[in-house]
Specification:
about 230 residues; Rossmann fold; 8 helices; about 20% strand
Protein backbone atom coordinates (compact mmCIF):
# COMPACT_ATOMS: atom_id res chain seq x y z
CA UNK A 1 0.00 0.00 0.00
CA UNK A 2 1.38 3.39 -1.01
CA UNK A 3 2.03 5.71 1.93
CA UNK A 4 1.58 9.49 1.90
CA UNK A 5 2.73 11.96 4.54
CA UNK A 6 0.52 15.04 4.85
CA UNK A 7 2.29 18.11 6.29
CA UNK A 8 -0.46 20.61 7.03
CA UNK A 9 -1.03 22.75 10.15
CA UNK A 10 -4.79 23.26 9.64
CA UNK A 11 -6.46 20.20 11.14
CA UNK A 12 -9.74 20.36 9.12
CA UNK A 13 -7.81 20.45 5.83
CA UNK A 14 -5.49 17.68 7.00
CA UNK A 15 -8.42 15.49 7.99
CA UNK A 16 -10.25 16.15 4.71
CA UNK A 17 -7.19 15.14 2.70
CA UNK A 18 -6.54 12.09 4.88
CA UNK A 19 -10.14 10.91 4.49
CA UNK A 20 -9.99 11.18 0.68
CA UNK A 21 -6.65 9.38 0.50
CA UNK A 22 -7.72 6.54 2.78
CA UNK A 23 -10.87 6.03 0.71
CA UNK A 24 -8.63 5.69 -2.35
CA UNK A 25 -6.50 3.01 -0.74
CA UNK A 26 -3.52 5.00 0.50
CA UNK A 27 -1.91 4.64 3.91
CA UNK A 28 -1.77 8.09 5.50
CA UNK A 29 0.52 9.69 8.06
CA UNK A 30 0.21 13.26 9.30
CA UNK A 31 2.40 16.07 10.61
CA UNK A 32 1.30 19.57 11.61
CA UNK A 33 4.67 21.30 11.09
CA UNK A 34 8.07 20.87 9.48
CA UNK A 35 9.68 19.51 12.63
CA UNK A 36 7.03 16.79 12.89
CA UNK A 37 7.53 15.96 9.21
CA UNK A 38 11.29 15.50 9.66
CA UNK A 39 10.72 13.24 12.65
CA UNK A 40 8.31 11.15 10.57
CA UNK A 41 10.78 10.99 7.67
CA UNK A 42 13.53 9.78 9.98
CA UNK A 43 11.20 7.07 11.29
CA UNK A 44 9.93 5.78 7.95
CA UNK A 45 10.13 7.03 4.39
CA UNK A 46 6.75 7.57 2.66
CA UNK A 47 6.10 7.26 -1.06
CA UNK A 48 5.08 10.92 -1.41
CA UNK A 49 4.76 14.11 0.62
CA UNK A 50 1.96 16.66 0.51
CA UNK A 51 3.42 19.86 1.96
CA UNK A 52 1.56 23.06 2.83
CA UNK A 53 3.53 26.21 2.00
CA UNK A 54 2.53 28.12 5.14
CA UNK A 55 3.71 26.09 8.15
CA UNK A 56 4.22 27.56 11.64
CA UNK A 57 7.89 26.69 12.21
CA UNK A 58 9.52 26.47 8.78
CA UNK A 59 7.83 27.16 5.47
CA UNK A 60 6.89 24.25 3.27
CA UNK A 61 9.22 25.65 0.61
CA UNK A 62 12.16 25.56 3.03
CA UNK A 63 11.20 22.04 4.11
CA UNK A 64 11.08 20.91 0.49
CA UNK A 65 14.51 22.39 -0.18
CA UNK A 66 15.88 20.55 2.85
CA UNK A 67 14.37 17.26 1.70
CA UNK A 68 15.81 17.66 -1.80
CA UNK A 69 19.29 18.48 -0.43
CA UNK A 70 19.57 15.33 1.68
CA UNK A 71 20.80 12.21 -0.11
CA UNK A 72 18.29 9.90 1.61
CA UNK A 73 15.25 11.91 0.49
CA UNK A 74 16.29 13.89 -2.60
CA UNK A 75 14.25 11.62 -4.91
CA UNK A 76 11.17 11.68 -2.67
CA UNK A 77 8.21 13.15 -4.62
CA UNK A 78 6.76 16.34 -3.11
CA UNK A 79 3.50 18.07 -4.02
CA UNK A 80 3.16 21.56 -2.58
CA UNK A 81 -0.25 22.77 -1.35
CA UNK A 82 -0.81 26.51 -1.13
CA UNK A 83 -3.21 29.39 -1.50
CA UNK A 84 -0.50 31.27 -3.45
CA UNK A 85 -1.66 31.24 -7.06
CA UNK A 86 0.73 33.77 -8.64
CA UNK A 87 3.02 32.47 -11.38
CA UNK A 88 6.09 33.62 -9.44
CA UNK A 89 5.05 31.53 -6.45
CA UNK A 90 4.52 28.47 -8.63
CA UNK A 91 7.96 28.89 -10.18
CA UNK A 92 9.52 29.36 -6.71
CA UNK A 93 7.87 26.15 -5.54
CA UNK A 94 9.07 24.16 -8.54
CA UNK A 95 12.54 25.70 -8.35
CA UNK A 96 12.61 24.74 -4.68
CA UNK A 97 12.25 21.09 -5.61
CA UNK A 98 8.51 20.43 -5.64
CA UNK A 99 7.40 17.92 -8.26
CA UNK A 100 3.95 19.49 -8.55
CA UNK A 101 2.02 22.45 -7.16
CA UNK A 102 -1.68 22.64 -6.38
CA UNK A 103 -3.51 25.76 -5.24
CA UNK A 104 -6.24 25.91 -2.60
CA UNK A 105 -9.12 25.39 -2.72
CA UNK A 106 -8.88 22.10 -4.59
CA UNK A 107 -11.16 19.11 -4.93
CA UNK A 108 -10.20 15.66 -3.62
CA UNK A 109 -10.57 14.38 -7.19
CA UNK A 110 -8.01 16.84 -8.54
CA UNK A 111 -5.61 16.11 -5.68
CA UNK A 112 -5.83 12.35 -6.26
CA UNK A 113 -5.22 12.85 -9.97
CA UNK A 114 -2.09 14.90 -9.25
CA UNK A 115 -0.84 12.36 -6.69
CA UNK A 116 -1.30 9.42 -9.04
CA UNK A 117 0.42 11.29 -11.87
CA UNK A 118 3.47 12.12 -9.73
CA UNK A 119 3.66 8.54 -8.43
CA UNK A 120 3.53 7.20 -12.00
CA UNK A 121 6.35 9.52 -13.02
CA UNK A 122 8.49 8.63 -10.03
CA UNK A 123 8.02 4.86 -10.41
CA UNK A 124 9.66 4.84 -13.83
CA UNK A 125 10.53 1.81 -15.91
CA UNK A 126 10.99 -1.67 -14.49
CA UNK A 127 13.33 -3.00 -17.15
CA UNK A 128 17.02 -3.55 -16.52
CA UNK A 129 18.14 -1.82 -19.68
CA UNK A 130 21.16 0.46 -19.38
CA UNK A 131 21.62 3.50 -21.60
CA UNK A 132 25.14 4.85 -22.22
CA UNK A 133 25.37 8.12 -24.12
CA UNK A 134 27.33 11.35 -24.04
CA UNK A 135 29.40 10.39 -21.01
CA UNK A 136 26.32 9.41 -18.97
CA UNK A 137 25.12 5.99 -17.90
CA UNK A 138 21.44 5.61 -17.03
CA UNK A 139 20.51 2.36 -15.28
CA UNK A 140 16.74 1.83 -15.41
CA UNK A 141 16.75 -1.05 -12.93
CA UNK A 142 18.31 1.01 -10.14
CA UNK A 143 17.15 4.47 -11.30
CA UNK A 144 20.75 5.66 -11.05
CA UNK A 145 22.59 7.99 -13.37
CA UNK A 146 26.37 8.11 -13.30
CA UNK A 147 29.15 9.90 -15.14
CA UNK A 148 32.70 8.55 -14.93
CA UNK A 149 31.65 6.57 -11.86
CA UNK A 150 30.13 9.58 -10.09
CA UNK A 151 26.45 9.61 -9.12
CA UNK A 152 24.29 12.33 -10.66
CA UNK A 153 21.64 13.44 -8.15
CA UNK A 154 18.29 13.74 -9.93
CA UNK A 155 14.72 14.14 -8.75
CA UNK A 156 12.10 11.77 -10.22
CA UNK A 157 10.90 14.21 -12.89
CA UNK A 158 14.44 15.12 -13.97
CA UNK A 159 15.27 11.41 -14.16
CA UNK A 160 12.32 10.72 -16.46
CA UNK A 161 13.19 13.74 -18.60
CA UNK A 162 16.81 12.62 -18.94
CA UNK A 163 15.71 9.06 -19.69
CA UNK A 164 13.51 10.35 -22.49
CA UNK A 165 16.25 12.59 -23.87
CA UNK A 166 18.91 9.85 -23.78
CA UNK A 167 16.63 7.40 -25.59
CA UNK A 168 15.72 10.03 -28.21
CA UNK A 169 19.02 11.88 -28.83
CA UNK A 170 19.73 14.60 -31.39
CA UNK A 171 16.04 15.29 -31.99
CA UNK A 172 14.44 18.60 -31.01
CA UNK A 173 11.28 18.44 -28.88
CA UNK A 174 8.97 21.35 -28.21
CA UNK A 175 7.67 22.06 -24.70
CA UNK A 176 4.29 20.66 -25.73
CA UNK A 177 5.88 17.42 -26.96
CA UNK A 178 7.93 17.06 -23.78
CA UNK A 179 4.83 17.58 -21.65
CA UNK A 180 3.09 14.80 -23.57
CA UNK A 181 6.06 12.39 -23.55
CA UNK A 182 7.33 12.95 -19.98
CA UNK A 183 4.18 13.92 -18.09
CA UNK A 184 1.54 12.16 -20.18
CA UNK A 185 -1.37 13.56 -22.15
CA UNK A 186 -3.92 13.25 -19.32
CA UNK A 187 -2.05 15.45 -16.85
CA UNK A 188 -2.37 19.22 -16.82
CA UNK A 189 1.01 20.88 -16.40
CA UNK A 190 1.88 24.39 -17.56
CA UNK A 191 4.50 24.64 -20.30
CA UNK A 192 6.54 26.95 -18.05
CA UNK A 193 7.13 23.88 -15.87
CA UNK A 194 9.36 22.41 -18.60
CA UNK A 195 11.81 25.31 -18.30
CA UNK A 196 12.00 24.84 -14.52
CA UNK A 197 12.83 21.14 -14.82
CA UNK A 198 15.30 21.77 -17.65
CA UNK A 199 17.17 24.19 -15.35
CA UNK A 200 17.17 21.62 -12.55
CA UNK A 201 18.40 18.89 -14.92
CA UNK A 202 21.20 21.10 -16.22
CA UNK A 203 22.22 22.05 -12.69
CA UNK A 204 22.53 18.36 -11.78
CA UNK A 205 24.55 17.63 -14.92
CA UNK A 206 26.73 20.67 -14.29
CA UNK A 207 28.24 18.84 -11.29
CA UNK A 208 29.79 16.34 -13.74
CA UNK A 209 30.45 18.98 -16.45
CA UNK A 210 27.84 17.59 -18.83
CA UNK A 211 25.14 20.26 -18.65
CA UNK A 212 25.94 21.20 -22.26
CA UNK A 213 24.36 17.91 -23.38
CA UNK A 214 20.88 19.42 -22.85
CA UNK A 215 20.71 22.08 -25.52
CA UNK A 216 18.22 24.85 -26.21
CA UNK A 217 17.18 25.23 -29.83
CA UNK A 218 15.89 28.79 -30.06
CA UNK A 219 12.27 28.99 -31.11
CA UNK A 220 11.90 25.20 -31.26
CA UNK A 221 12.57 23.51 -27.92
CA UNK A 222 15.22 21.27 -26.41
CA UNK A 223 17.36 18.31 -27.40
CA UNK A 224 19.97 15.97 -25.92
CA UNK A 225 23.09 15.92 -28.04
CA UNK A 226 26.58 14.45 -27.96
CA UNK A 227 27.66 17.22 -30.35
CA UNK A 228 28.47 20.79 -29.48
CA UNK A 229 25.59 23.27 -29.43
Amino acid sequence: MRQILIVEDEKPIREMIAFALKRSGFEVREAENSHGARVQLADRRPDLLLVDWMLPDMSGLELTRLIKREAATRDLPVIMLTARAAEGDKVAGLDGGADDYITKPFSPRELLSRINAVLRRSSGSTTDEQVDLGGLTLDRSSHRVTAAGLDVALGPTEYRMLEFFMTHPERVYSREQLLDRVWGGNVYVEERTIDVHIRRLRKALEAVHLDHRVQTVRGSGYRFSTREA
